[in-house]
Amino acid sequence: MADIRSGHCLCGAVAFEVTDPAHELGACHCSMCRRWTGLATLSLGVPADALNILSGREAIRAYPSSDWAERAFCGTCGSPLWYRLTTEGDAAEYYLAAGLLDDLSGMRLEHEIYIDRKPDAYAFAGPTHQMTEAEFLASLPPNPEE
Ligand SMILES: [Zn+2]
Ligand SMILES: [Zn+2]
Fold first, then answer.
1. Most Cβ neighbours (<10 Å): which of 5, 91, 98, 110?
2. Is the pLDDT of residue 19 over 80?
3. pTM of the prediction?
């Protein structure tokens, strides 16, 4: 039986279901994620065909935070929704804001990126797989357009 997890933004306008989600969450400590969500952004990687948006498509706004990615949010309540590469079109994976899910049971924080950008003010308990900004950038596949 499929594991279907529901979720929604703060006001409830944007509601969705994720089919058979992974159980590993990732945290990003970069300065853009911090400003976007208040501190580290915890996200769940969801393949495009596993995210079913049930309602609120008209409320979804997207901010192009770089030349290659956008950050979607609810235009009514401002909840962050997901980070997504714009270079991969409709097939792009969603990095869904983990806190939108109604049920995070069985999930754990598995990795942290931009760990060298993390303020000293807080730390996750871990253990997690940690990568610095340089390590993370070096791990990305080369851009096929280059
Ligand atoms: Zn909302
Ligand atoms: Zn980030």
1. 5
2. yes
3. 0.92
